[in-house]
Amino acid sequence: MTAQRTIPFGRPWIGDEERRAVEEVLRGDVLAHGPQGKAFEAEFAAVLGEGAHVVSVSSGMAALHLSYYQMGLGPGDEVLVPALTHTATVHAVEIMGARPVFVDCEPRSGNVDVSKMESLITPRTKAIGIVHFLGVPCPMEEIVSLAERHGLHVVEDCALALGTRLKGKHAGLFGDSGCFSFYPVKHITTGEGGMFVTRHKSVAGKVSKARAFGVDRSFSERTIPGMYDVLSLGLNYRMSDINAALGRVQLTRLPEILRRRRANFAFLKDALKGSGNISVLDGGATGEESSCYCLSVVLEGPLGAHRAKAVFKLNEAGIGTSVYYPQPVPRMTYYREKYGYRPEDYRQAARISDQSIALPVGPHLTADDLDYIVTHFKRVIKEVLP
Ligand SMILES: Cc1ncc(COP(=O)(O)O)c(C=O)c1O
């Protein structure tokens, strides 16, 4: 068929304000370590709310890596991680030489199944890593209480969770650290970029040094320019002032971005209800506020085997789709070859990876786009069944 529309899965919302902000940085002499980075951090902390200490970094992966780096994770340690997530959630553990121990997800939201966690804790377990899947908050009270009972750290992957709250508290402020991503299809973008978040001022101070080679004083703290010492190991995970200036403008758009994402999500979920043999991943516990990253529809029963055909037909109609995530991480070649893979341990993660289609809900969608998606989705799921 010929597409009557082109609807991308995600499209950064960049306007003249962003272009002006970036240009202004480029007209000046300070491209890094400058006022934009500091201002972006302060404004981001204000969005998260009371008690947030934040450190801007070069990506979400950098924030995750720094989370485990600052806690001194190493060989012999284990970390519980979700089987259904982006590989970055797991790489951050593996790159420290520790062992990821995968936990299956629960079927309704795709968030980690907390009931499966305790039996996987061993004397070697040091931390629990979770992801607020597609922006639906994990049951953090249960996770934090489990971690406290066993003396474990908690790292929250908030790459899809800007705007996610549970009982009013923002994601990233429940555990030891929260890790945000500003990759282009995320809620806000800085091109590439991320934010490390913690409730502990001392941890933020440590991470701030670790993201900049471990040098003992920042640019502005140096009495003699160029002079510094190194007290610990570090990396270069800084965000430039160009990226930060972009992020500051993007942050002003966040309330409208969230309003539109939530409205688009609710519209599509309602319109697809009763379409038969599908379920929509979502939360539902009281006090949850999802950031509504996308609408992931799981093709159930006989439809389940026809995902590829359905995706092809949707794309052919001009509707951009994605898959969150393409495989349970323990089934990815690197992890499967290293640790083995028992399909019976990850049934729900595999169901979602193999049978779901992620539909767009971003602020770029118009009312006509939404109607178009509904019409064609309903058509396609009828057509793919033999
Ligand atoms: C859940 C999750 N965690 C971490 C990342 C990595 O973030 P970044 O691309 O900013 O490194 C992503 C994807 O981008 C993600 O989806």
Overall pLDDT confidence: 96
Q: CATH class of the largest domain, anyone?
A: Alpha Beta
Q: Supply the number of helical segments.
A: 11
Poorly predicted segments: none
**CATH architecture level-2 label of the largest domain:** 3-Layer(aba) Sandwich
Q: How many strands in all?
A: 13
Q: What is CATH's topology name of the largest domain?
A: Aspartate Aminotransferase, domain 2
Lateral arrangement of strands in the main beta sheet: 1-9-8-5-4-2-3
| CATH homologous superfamily (4th level) name of the largest domain | Type I PLP-dependent aspartate aminotransferase-like (Major domain)
How many structural domains can be distinguished in the coordinates?
A: 2
Distance between the termini: 19 Å
Rg (C-alpha, Å): 21 Å
Structural category is alpha/beta
The backbone outline, from C-alpha atoms, is: globular
Order of helices and strands: HHEHEHEEHEEEEEHHEEEHHHEH
Which range does the strand content fall in?
5-15%
Helical amount: 25-40%
Ligand kinds: pyridoxal-5'-phosphate
Main sheet summary: 7 strands, mixed
Describe the overall structure.
It is a single chain. The chain has 386 residues and is α/β, with parallel strands linked by helices. The protein folds into 2 domains: 16-250, Type I PLP-dependent aspartate aminotransferase-like (Major domain) (Aspartate Aminotransferase, domain 2); 255-383, Aspartate Aminotransferase, domain 1 (Alpha-Beta Complex), CATH 3.90.1150. Helix content is 37%, strand content 14%. The protein has helices at residues 16-27, 35-48, 60-70, 87-94, 140-150, 201-210, 241-272, 307-316, 333-339, 347-355, 367-383; strands spanning 53-57, 78-82, 99-103, 125-131, 153-157, 165-166, 169-170, 177-181, 194-198, 278-280, 288-289, 295-299, 356-359. A 7-stranded mixed sheet has the order 1-9-8-5-4-2-3, sandwiched between helices. The model has no long low-confidence stretch (mean pLDDT 96). The protein binds pyridoxal-5'-phosphate (PLP).
